[in-house]
Sequence to fold (589 residues):
Amino acid sequence: MTQKKFSLFPYLLQYKWHYLAGILILMLVDLANLYVPQFTGELIDGLTEGIIGQEGVWPLLGRIFAAGVVMMLGRFGWRYCIFGAARGIEYRLRNDMFGHLETLSARYFNSHKTGDLMAHFTNDLQALRMAVGPAVVTAFDAIVMTIMVLVKMIFYVDFQLTLLAFVPLILVAVGCYYYGIEAKKRQTRRQKAFSDLSDKVQESLAGVRVLKAFVQEDADFRAFEEASRNSMEKNLSVVKLRAVFGPALDLVTGISLLLTLLFGGRMVLAGQVSIGKFVAFNSYIGMLVWPMIACGDCINSFSQAAAAFQRIACIFREEPDIVDMSAGEDVHIKGDIALKDLTFTYPDGEEPVLKHVNLHVKAGEMLGVLGRTGSGKSSLADLLLRVYDCKEGTLLVDGRPITEFPLAVLHRDMAYVPQESFLFSDTLEENIAFGLEERISEHPEMHESIQEAARAACIHDNIMEFPDKYQTLVGERGVTLSGGQKQRSSIARALLMDASVLILDDSLSAVDTDTEEQILENLMQQRKGKTTIVVAHRISTLQKADHIAVLTEGELTEYGTHDELLALGGFYAHIYEKQQLEQELVGIQ
Fold:
């Protein structure tokens, strides 16, 4: 598969009129700026030579004032156009990047750190914005201003004096070339260090409870300090380069001014150049200082942007592993699921996690899945949700290969409660209603449905004990709730979807036995005629299922009802006896 080529051109094209207007206004400002030294020189020559009197001063002062007004209004205009366009490009690029990330598959997020991705949305996008905004202005202004000032110096003052003043500035072009090469290398290392630091901060803050529980604050601080020092050193390397380049520009500019004073002063004394023109010429030399400094700033900005562009382009070149293969037909899944000689290996794995699995779950049945850790239970759930794809024809839904269903249909008709319940930093009500297309604020009648789902998940009573009840704000990832409360809130969220297929991936592990039994009873009442797949380690969670599948190292080793598996006397019966003994011991205590 050929990788997509990422380009900024379509984003720039959207704002072509903004850039065109901004550049035209910028040229007008530069023209106005160009004539100020000339008007000043004419005023000085007129007064010193007695050509103009008091009545002739006011028109020249009026011209200077008019030029100042044009510059003031024009600078607002080009900032509004070009800086506004840069902000708009950043906004659209950020949205597109976030939307593209949402299409990528689990494999991508398994191999990319959150902090690194966050750096793309902050540091990298800012670098690109600076390149398509201020750097564009600076580059254009530097080129145009240099040309216009040189032309003015040649035709208004003297060609030889202009050549003498400009020759030292040629050194700047050579220095800028080598500066750009080195700046790009250092900017790349700097941005990589920033990504590492962002990832370290994000990971430490997210896992702060674990750090405190294991008394690892000092060790984690040392790791943070190392990442912070690395970021500081990489930033300093950029600053040091800039610190050398800036004074070098000032030195070259100073040499140019010195030559102008030495040789231009002689020309004034010799009567070859008037005092007014010499004053204007020195003003023009000062105006050339800005393009020289701007040249270094441009190279610095474009070097940062080039490094950022490569990193962002890598994101856009990523293709999702899981794509729609159907025409997008709007069908409804009934819930009949069949596995036919299913063998599956993770994209980055070598050994299959599921091996030649065959089973059939009829629509409306409840299937229990049991197995040791690493036996392939969660992998089975991932395949049903198309987090990963298996070999064509080995996983059928309603008699059709699962890939024939649009992803939107699968995710609409298959509700899922993962092992690790994830709640957003929002109210409990919004978290439970997360899977619905409608927003609660627009449909007040949804409140009753939300409470019904919460009752079925046995979380309603807990919620009503909170001061703000359903409007209680949960912390990041639901950190303010207990493990059992998070699991039951996630179950309520899945039940509210009323999907054709419900997958519970060991999502009752943090719930006590009595509450678990009540939830399962509610599930069986509410989900009559709908398919339910329950992955668990506890027999009590599975014994009411229509069929139970036992996985051992990826293979289906036992299959049947609770009574049939007990009679078989295998792994299931052994686990059942063990758990029964544990319950009896707990009862004795």
